Amino acid sequence: MSSPHSQNRAILLLALAAFVSASAFRICDPMLPRLAAEFGTSTGQAGATVTAFAVAYGLLQMFFGPVGDRYGKFRVVAIATFACAIGSAGAVVAPNLDVLIVCRALSGAAGGGIVPLSMAWIGDNVPYEERQATLARFLTGTILGMAMGQLAGGLITDTMGWRWAFAFLVVGYVIVGSLLLREVAQQAAQRRSSAGSATASQSVPQRGFVAQMRTVFGVPWARIVLVTVFLEGLLVFGSLAFAPAYLHDRFGLSLTAAGAVVAVYALGGLLYTLVAGRMLRWLGERGLAAAGGVVLCVAFLAYWLGPAWGWALGAGVLAGFGYYLLHATLQTNATQMVPSARGTAVAWFASCLFLGQAVGVALAGVFVDVAGAAVLFGTSAVLLPLLGASFAWALKRRAQAKTGEPVVQ
Fold first, then answer.
1. Which of 31-35, 45-49, 55-59 has the lowest mean pLDDT?
2. What is the DSSP string of 264-329?
3. Of 122, 280, 287, 347, which is most buried with the most CB atoms under 10 A?
4. What is the band of 204 on the pLDDT scale with cuts at 50, 70, 90?
5. Which pTM was predicted?
């Protein structure tokens, strides 16, 4: 068993890897108008740089669960981080939009293992009674990374050029990957020095990919969680991906300012981590899910109807807070929905989230080119409260089924 100090160090490194990965996911959002101008295309078509990353990220996550179980989750995260650096290096020198899209897809494919395997490693090594707090600390890296991607993408594009944004990603990936590999070596040495210890992979049945997938999808509750997180990613991030371009076009904000305004989304997420315990005690899981949908509705209405760009600041904070009210409830259920195949279950959860984002951005690109970004915000404002209420109802039915109570409509 690792010491608390070494465990905290390992979790910090995983959070740093998630930070860089999340930054890469969102870094193209504010640079879409610049990419469209440089490559002579529309903003919606330039959005393929976001879609390609998200599609590859989502599709590959489902394969990383069995790979991590077999070869070691922490080791696979380290290798994936270096592979992301290679994809980002290709984006630095991309001569045209098609090559840039391919490089983004490569980065997304490699990055698909970072967050789900980190969550699964935490599930394997942290006792359940401590897991929610630990996942909240890990989640901070993802939240800050998404904000940094939005902010840095606009700032670097305005000041140094969009290629430099990918160059900074390469540096980040290499530094974090090196630290992760050193941690892998330290963990191996610690296992060798502990005669009675056993690796997490030794306690996990070695089943093939198809068998593990069938195990996960054979659980009805797992199917409900996976469908809900797919729709969540589609509705939330499909709209948010085009928020910087919307603010740039409607209010004349620079790309730096537009990216910074949308990046306050992270403040809402951080606010959630500060009050999560109290909110959970006050509202319970069902209340958190329902409240998340309502808060997201208000956020997208503020983006859509706000008469000045300052309204988007409040909208961003509400979007982050509402998203994590709903998403953290989903995430907690994901880590326990199939304990016998945790790595695969969490990988599919993350895969469905990012596939939802990819589909959302692709659909949003069509909406932006045909009807304008305002349609996106109105659609999300209507559908997200319904999604939160539906999952809250599913949680109620599941709790009643466990206790044998009749399901009351």
1. 55-59
2. THHHHHHHHHHHHHHHHHHHHHHHHHHHHHHHHHHHHHHHHH-SSTTHHHHHHHHHHHHHHHHHHH
3. 347
4. very low
5. 0.72
> Nearest 5°: CA angle at 151, between 145 and 157?
120
What's the residue count for the chain?
409
* pLDDT tens per residue across span 69-82: 778 889 999 999 99
Reported as a single tens digit per residue, the pLDDT across 105-123 is 999 999 988 988 898 888 7
Average confidence (pLDDT) over 337-345: 79
The Cα–Cα gap between 96 and 275 comes to: 45
- DSSP class of residue 41 equals -
pLDDT recorded at residue 168:
94
Looking at residue 383, what DSSP letter applies? H
Terminal alpha carbon distance of the chain: 47
Q: What is the pLDDT of residue 381?
A: 93
Q: Torsion angle of alpha carbons 117, 172, 24, 162, nearest 10°? A: -170
Q: What's the rounded Cα separation, in Å, for the pair 218 and 341?
A: 11
Query: Residue with structure tokens 């935490």?
Result: 122
Quick one: pLDDT band at residue 208, thresholds 50, 70, 90?
A: low
Hey, what are 100's tokens? 């840039």
Residue type, 122: I
Do 10 and 2 contact (CB within 8 A), yes or no? yes
* Buried-exposed string 118-128: b where 16+ CB fall within 10 A, e elsewhere: bbbbbbbbbee
Q: Tokens 């309204």 map to which residue?
A: 311
H helix or E strand, kind and range, residue 369: helix 342-370
Nearest to 239 by CA among 21, 24, 25, 29: 29
| 220-240 helix and 373-403 helix, angle to the nearest 10 degrees | 160
Q: What is the DSSP letter of 409?
A: -
- Evaluated on CA atoms 40, 151, 231, 19, the torsion sign reads positive
